[in-house]
Amino acid sequence: MVPVPGPDPAALEAALARELLLLVHHHGDADSVGCAIALAAAFPGARISATDGLSAAGKVMAERLEVEIEARPPASWDGTVVVVDTSNPEHCAPLPECNSVVVIDHHQTAGEWPAGTLLIHEPEAKSTAEIVTRLIPELGIELTPQMALPLLAGVYADTGHFRHASSDSFAVAHTLAAAGGEPRQAMVLLDRVRPQQQRTMFLKAAQRLKFSQEGKWLMATTRTGSFESGTARLMVALGADVALAASGNKKGQVRISSRASSAAIEAGLNLAQLLEALADEQDGSAGGHPGAAGFQAQGDPDALLAMAQQGCVAQLKSLAEGA
Ligand SMILES: [Mn+2]
Description:
The structure is a single chain. This protein is α/β, with parallel strands linked by helices. The chain contains twelve helices and eleven strands. The chain has helices spanning 9-16, 30-42, 56-64, 128-138, 145-158, 167-178, 183-190, 196-207, 228-238, 262-266, 271-282, 301-322, and strands spanning 20-24, 47-49, 80-84, 101-105, 118-121, 210-214, 217-223, 242-248, 253-260, 285-289, 292-298. Helix 2 (30-42) runs parallel beside helix 4 (128-138), helix 4 (128-138) packs antiparallel against helix 5 (145-158) and helix 8 packs across helix 9 (228-238). The model has no long low-confidence stretch (mean pLDDT 94). Bound molecules: manganese (II) ion.
């Protein structure tokens, strides 16, 4: 594993010897919350505070590990404020008034932190958990299972379950597993069960799903009450190359969400372009990316869905011809 870069070790140790307030970024995610929980275990007595809520993953992790995270930081702090997984002070504002600040982060560019901030910034790291995993033993503190588990969950989350991992992510994961962070438990820590109402919507949308084969491509459409983008994403997970999910409400507002398989994107399918053209034609609005785009307009959901579908079929045919 690579050594942790950054501030003078003596200055860092002195800062961390003071009373610690650990801050996670706005809408704190699994990496941020996992690092804060691990550091609170490494430095008993440290407090953890959110700055503007927690993400669903962050909330679930804190609940399952029975760790208390305060909703708001105090206005000022006498010890040291340790900010984790935050590139810019705006992302954890309001930063308490404090003359000792440590920032541990892996985002691309570090923002303007108060003068004297001890910055541990490693943009090559795929998660802040990787930096914290190397930092704790460097400070002479033994990694315990209580620290290793939330850190491993942070590595899982920020590497997209190792899809974007570097070789160092694996080295760190090995260290964490050896320290008692059980891989399966880390996965469980990240598992979220969607609310039943949402799952019911998805299942109803699946009942209404229609599909066709267009050359070598599979195209699926459905109507739903809401959660259009999740529905479209799940249709691609089921096997569709192109998925369209439409909803309409009593006011005549129609929303269509679309997703495409990586093979279709690779072949040149562009859903954003397609839905933007439909929006021009139908006086609506659209936007997104080649593989994931959305559309809104006034009208009849079935009619608009049929038009979007025709557009997709035409594009898929032209891809086939081009190939
Ligand atoms: Mn992160």
